């Protein structure tokens, strides 16, 4: 890998942030996976709101997957990728992020209706 002095300076500046992002992503993968497994295995977590939360965890998991290639590119010094490759990596993440935003709205609406009109 032949880096110019400017590229080396950029990499040394962003490296702590990249490593921190990858560490936080690993915690996110574990947490989201745990939420989905708990929702699947527990009979108490089969309510509509909990299923929405599990769907949000899957959506967040997919969104976090987009961080891995860019972290790898930063760690290896590959600063520029082809545009079509960026689209392949980012499209599932962007769709998942928009879906997650819709799920957050639905969860909030479900909680609001549950507080305004309690059952039972």
UniProtKB/TrEMBL annotation:
Q: Alphabetically list the UniProt keywords.
A: Membrane, Transmembrane, Transmembrane helix
Q: What is its main location?
A: membrane
Q: Give any GO molecular function from the UniProt entry.
A: G protein-coupled receptor activity
- Boundaries of each G-protein coupled receptors family 1 profile domain copy? 31-120
Tell me which InterPro entries the record gives.
Answer: 7TM_GPCR_Srsx (IPR019424), 7TM_GPCR_Srsx_nematod (IPR047130), GPCR_Rhodpsn (IPR000276), GPCR_Rhodpsn_7TM (IPR017452)
Q: Which cell locations does it reside in?
A: Membrane
Q: Which SUPFAM superfamilies match?
A: Family A G protein-coupled receptor-like (SSF81321)
Q: Where are the transmembrane segments?
A: 18-40, 52-75, 87-107
Q: Name one GO cellular component term.
A: membrane
Q: Mind telling me which PANTHER family this protein's record contains?
A: G-PROTEIN COUPLED RECEPTORS FAMILY 1 PROFILE DOMAIN-CONTAINING PROTEIN, G-PROTEIN COUPLED RECEPTORS FAMILY 1 PROFILE DOMAIN-CONTAINING PROTEIN-RELATED
* Protein's name in the database: G-protein coupled receptors family 1 profile domain-containing protein
